[in-house]
Write a structure and sequence with these properties.
alpha+beta, four-stranded antiparallel β-sheet, 4 strands
């Protein structure tokens, strides 16, 4: 009787099926965690905009005007965001996933919003608009 080394076809097929099952369980969880991280990044940028707007308010007596960061998806590829003098916010790395806008009349009312830019990331198509008020409360993003 010969001593054969190696695996049978059945053993290899079982291993492939097990790997397939594990991948089917892991990929949706990874996608959900990735989406959650992108939303968290947008909330962090909104917080930066809030802090910068508060500093701007302390220096000038009013919040910056409307649409300071509107259409940021176009400006983000150049390396800097154009905005009003004195309002400094670092742009997120990579392609923009959200478009940020400040809604203010330059007075005491202030709101910044983040809208998902699904042209760069289709996984964000169902994310609601996030906003931060002049009190620093972030809402949306579900």
């Amino acid at each position: 009787m010969r001593n054969r080394k190696g695996f049978t076809l059945i053993e290899l097929m079982i291993v492939v099926v097990i790997i397939g099952i594990l991948a089917a369980l892991a990929i949706p969880r990874f996608m959900a965690a990735s989406k959650k991280a992108k939303i968290s990044e947008a909330k962090g940028v909104l917080k930066q905009i809030y802090v910068a707007a508060e500093a701007y308010y302390q220096e000038t007596g009013g919040y910056p005007g409307v649409n300071t960061f509107n259409n940021a998806s176009v400006k983000a590829t150049s390396g800097t965001w154009t905005g009003v003098a004195g309002l400094v916010v670092d742009r997120p790395s990579g392609y923009p996933r959200f478009t940020y806008a400040i809604t203010s009349a330059g007075g005491a009312a202030f709101t910044a919003t983040a809208v998902a830019t699904s042209s760069y990331d289709a996984s964000l198509h169902d994310v609601t608009v996030m906003s931060i008020s002049e009190m620093g409360v972030i809402s949306g993003g579900e």
